[in-house]
Design a protein that fits this description.
This protein is 26% helix and 25% strand. It has two helices and five strands. The chain is of the alpha+beta class and 65 residues long. The two termini are 20 Å apart. A five-stranded antiparallel sheet has the order 1-2-3-4-5, with helices on one face.
Length: 65
C-alpha cells in the first residue's frame, strides 16, 4: 500500500525494502545495524520488531518514532 510507505518515509525511514506483502526496514526509534529486523505489513501497517519483541498497529509504530 503506497499510503503505508508514504507514512514510513515521512517518519524518517530511508532504507525500506519491499518484500512482497511487507516492508522491511531498520528501526529508527532505537539503535540497530539490521536493515530487515522491522517488518511492516503493506495492507494493514501492523509491525513487528523481531529483535525487541515489539509489535502492534501502525499507530503504535508512529508513536515510537
Amino acid at each position: 500500500m503506497d499510503d503505508i510507505k508514504s507514512i514510513l518515509l515521512n517518519l524518517g525511514f530511508s532504507n525500506i525494502n519491499d518484500l512482497g506483502k511487507e516492508y522491511r526496514a531498520r528501526p529508527i526509534y532505537r539503535e540497530s545495524d539490521n536493515n530487515t529486523v522491522l517488518s511492516i505489513k503493506k495492507d494493514t501497517g501492523y509491525f513487528v520488531d523481531y529483535a525487541r519483541g515489539i509489535s502492534g498497529p501502525l499507530e503504535k509504530l508512529v508513536s515510537l518514532c
